[in-house]
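[Protein data]
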Amino acid sequence: MRAEVLFANFVAEHNIPFLVADCFTRLCKAMFTDSKIASKFACGRTKTTQIIKRSLAPSLHQEVVEHLQSNPFSIAIDESNDRNCDKSLAILVRYFTDRSRTSFLAMPVCNIGTASNIFNHLQQVFLDNNIPWSNLVSFMLDNCSVMTGKNN
């Protein structure tokens, strides 16, 4: 179990596609034929995804939120459609610790793409995570007309 969690963390930390997990499980067994741990290692893409989503993500998200609560950061947003016809508002943050980091903050469903509705979703994310607007130092977005307004 420890090996599976360490592997899942590695996948998340280095932004490796989950599909690699299927091949890596077979590779471990082939490389370490004399290892009991490797012979029991079974962490394909489904298990890796679940370990990241249900075990690692909440604590990693909390680390990001705690940093944003007391340090300056930038935000980048973009809307996208998923397969269910819902529009999502992807919210990424960039901040500095020992290095520059870009992290996922939230992705609320935002089916009405007006500027006021987008702002309301951002406001809700800030309120839910107790993030002060005063720490926001820049805002990045695409050049769609709802963002720039009729007078640019």
